[in-house]
Amino acid sequence: MLQTRDIQSFFFLGIGGIGMSALARYFYTRGFRVYGYDRTPSPLTDQLVEEGMVITFDDRVEALESMQLSAQQTLVVRTPAVPEDSAIYTYLREQNYDIRKRSEVLGLVTRTKQALCVAGTHGKTTTSTILAHLLYQSEVGTNAFLGGVSNNYGTNLLLQDSPYVVVEADEYDRSFHQLTPYMSIVTSVDPDHLDIYGTAEAYREAFAYYTSLITGALVMKRGIALEPRLKEGVKCYTYEVISEQGQQPQADFYADHIRVEEGKIYFDFHTPSESIEDLRLGVPVWVNIENSVAAMAVAWLNGVKAHELRSGLSSFSGVYRRFNVHVDTAKVAFVDDYAHHPQELSASVESIRRLFPERHTIAIFQPHLFSRTQDFMDDFAKVLSRMDEVILLPIYPARELPIEGVTSDALLEKITCVHKSLVQKPDLCATVAARVQELDQPVAVMSLGAGDIDRLVPELSNALKEL
Q1: pTM for the complete prediction?
Q2: Which of 36, 132, 187, 394 has the smallest number of CB atoms closer than 10 Å to its CB?
């Protein structure tokens, strides 16, 4: 555990990040003074300030003067999203502050509990939030550091008197190697972050090493390209979704008898020793069946009862920016989703087509990172071409510099939709509203991406509600 007896305050470099803000909230609730820097204000940083934390958006050393920080009594927590040449970061290094990565601090904190971790290229945030909700509303209870804001609780940090803590195990920069999972879910190992790993083989090797850190049990999706490297005595379970009639289950945990009735999704859940029939999915999105099976498997293994699984699943209301339906009128439906990898986009496209099968579909996509767009440009184009039309925004660079030839224009050329366009952010809302207005049929609009496209969601929602 962190030696906190001499630490009186924490300074978070990149405090507006979803993972950083959860840690900031944790230490603030434990009585520490919490300060931070981020590049721009956001609704999340506004909340942190309202809760009592002090945040600057000015990357100058002078911005730290009023905080009266001490290198002997302040621990600095950083995220790779803050560049090495940041003036504040440079100053803190030169003044010999103790600077730790977010993943290291999270790993140290979670070692005081039995960590239930969720890893994988896709589905981490939703699966971990479902798991946290199932445990939190049961007699078992849990703490949780979530990778998104839970719609049930309006926060990314849950605290209870429980031996468990739910953690999203992030593979970026090998952060999840800092964790000590008691149990872990692995949802997928489709290559991503190739700017860090270089090859698909290296990416999967990082997951194999991660499984060697598990002390209790692994729950992994059946059929994924992962050969776990488990310690002696660590159990391995698999899970799957049986979507075709007559298909024989081969996993330890599975869902079958899936049906849609009046816009709601129902299914049966099977464990190694019992079956729970007619469960209702609180957020009726097809991909959440799989996420729920994984989460219920770990919850069941840790003592959550059948009736608690039933009530928890039906009362789960989702995660901010995970297939959130903002508008649903006879003329237009509007869904916002964080999807930023081809596989995630594919799941979102499938879900919106299942949910609104008769509507004309429009995808608004903001590519995230030049490197990811370069690595998956053909895959992005293939998935987006399944929509009736596509509107692209310029690439959101985040921590990266441009790569020659990697642009939204280049991606647009590969998309095969008849109706496709590239729009600048200031013009998006008017463009989308005008397009929906001119169509003579019901429309389903979906905004996608992990950049700052979410800042446009309120304005876009208001514009579409008025049509």
Answers
A1: 0.81
A2: 394
